[in-house]
Amino acid sequence: MFRIFVIFGIICTIFHISCSKDEVGNQDTYNTKINFISPAEDSEYIIGDTIKISAVITSDVSMHGYEILIHNTTQKNIIPLKNKHTHGKEIILDENWIVDVKNKSDLEIEIVAAIDHLGNQISAFRKVKCN
User: Fold this and answer.
1) Distance from CA of residue 78 to its chain's centroid?
2) What are 27-67's pLDDT values in tens digits?
3) CB 3.0 to 4.6 Å from 65: which of 8, 20, 60, 85, for a disulfide?
4) What is the end-to-end Cα distance of the chain in Å, rounded?
5) Bridge partners of 124?
6) How many C-beta atoms lie closer than 10 Å to residue 87's C-beta?
7) What pTM did the predictor assign?
8) Exposed/middle/buried for 71, CB within 10 Å: 0-12, 13-18, 19+?
């Protein structure tokens, strides 16, 4: 019975250590950057078009993923496009979204970089139009 507790303790310790590499108590969010590659600012799309969303997120610590949100500022709603948990000091994202907005709308594409499991994050926005 004692061996089971020891093995369980070792597994819990390994699990805890594996996801806390390079984490610092107060991480500096200024060292994490989101570089939008596409779409271009103020691009215009119509229903059925494919918007290629590409970016590179870099940091001096191992990050914990990203989320992509489409904010329809005209209709006042948010479309969650992607939420990915991944680790790395550089995260390359390459996603597509097929425009399904029927009415003329202003959109903001938001990329949220999850810096750690404590909730520290940064965002970058790209404005586009749908006609």
Assistant:
1) 15
2) 556 689 999 999 999 999 999 999 999 999 999 989 999 99
3) 85
4) 67
5) 111
6) 13
7) 0.77
8) middle
